[in-house]
Amino acid sequence: MPCAVRGGGSVPAEPAARVQHLYPVHGIKGSPETAGFCGTSKAHCRSPDCMIDYGHCDAHQKPKGPPTKDIPRPHLGLVPYGPTEIRSCTVPGTVALTFDDGPTQYTGDLLDLLDKYEAPATFFVTGINNGKGPIDDESLPWASLIDRMISSGHQIASHTWSHQDLSKVTPEQRTEQLEKNEAALRNIMGSFPTYMRPPYSSCLPRSGCREDLGKMGYHIVLYDIDTEDYKNDDPNSIKRSKDLFDGVISTGSPHTKSWLVIGHDSHEQTVYNLTEHMLQTITRLGYRPVTLGDCLSDPRNNWYRQDFSWSGRTFL
Ligand SMILES: [Zn+2]
């Protein structure tokens, strides 16, 4: 039975990471973050709360199919790969709306909204988090939502397998966090993304994280507008996120400026309130919503790596 104090594993404790969108995903009384809270229930084992060093985590589940580690990872195109961090778009007049931590129970409604506005967006998908089960489990709704994202013209990017802090895990665990999500997405799409965002925006230089991700062929993506939707997921306080978005985007002109925005499709107010406001503001100011790849002028073929050994969803 896994029992541990958070941070008490074999990995040396880091000072506070540069956590920019750490938000409460617990919502369960007696979170496993509490020392001595032991068990093997869904609440105990769901990522990212579970202690990855102690077993029984969702993080330890493994996608089916062949591993992706031997797939070649050439650095194609002009967009920088790790260790560089990308914090902004480059094509004037574009806004890349990005949504982390999904798919969730709200994501279908967000896709409806984006369809209504004919607005392409980018989804930083987590493979297994918050007790939702693996994205490539076809008895769950996640794979069909990811299919729909692709067919609707959105971009898929990686937000790791189980949302661990990549500055705090071992290099082997870090690689596994990316490769497991690659396999799960490959099981759905036949390919996996070249773009990723580190959970909690944490990929500290001294951990070796940025170099490792570069070697794995990843673009490391942050943002230049943080909606702080994770702080304002309430009908009354979401206005703060709207005002924050409007305030920052109004500081530039679509003739010269572009924006890279972070939100979360795991938050109800983001899906049912904030996103429509952002889309209306984007249009009113003369910007156009595009995918991350398009706001960086990166050809679509560079957004994903194909797994040519993959023959379809037959093993699922
Ligand atoms: Zn996240």
Can you tell me about this structure?
The protein has 316 residues and is an alpha/beta fold. The protein has 2 domains: 27-60, no CATH class; 85-306, TIM Barrel, CATH 3.20.20. Helix content is 26%, strand content 12%. The radius of gyration is 19 Å and the shape is globular. Residues 1-35 have low confidence and may be disordered. Residues 100-101, 159, 163, 199 line the site of zinc ion. Zinc ion is lined by residues 100-101, 159, 163, 199.
A few lines on this structure:
With 316 residues, the chain is of the alpha/beta class. It has helices spanning 42-45, 107-116, 142-151, 171-189, 209-215, 238-249, 268-284, 292-295; strands spanning 85-86, 94-100, 122-125, 155-158, 191-193, 195-196, 219-221, 225-226, 259-264, 288-290, 304-306. The two termini are 29 Å apart.
Rg to the nearest angstrom?
A: 19 Å
Distance linking N and C termini: 29 Å
Tally of individual helices: 8
| Number of beta strands | 11
Which structural class matches the secondary elements?
alpha/beta
User: The biggest beta sheet, please?
Assistant: 6 strands, parallel
Which CATH class of the largest domain applies here? Answer: Alpha Beta
Going by CATH, the homologous superfamily of the largest domain would be Glycoside hydrolase/deacetylase
List keywords for this structure.
about 325 residues; alpha/beta; TIM Barrel; six-stranded parallel beta sheet; three-stranded parallel beta sheet; binds zinc ion
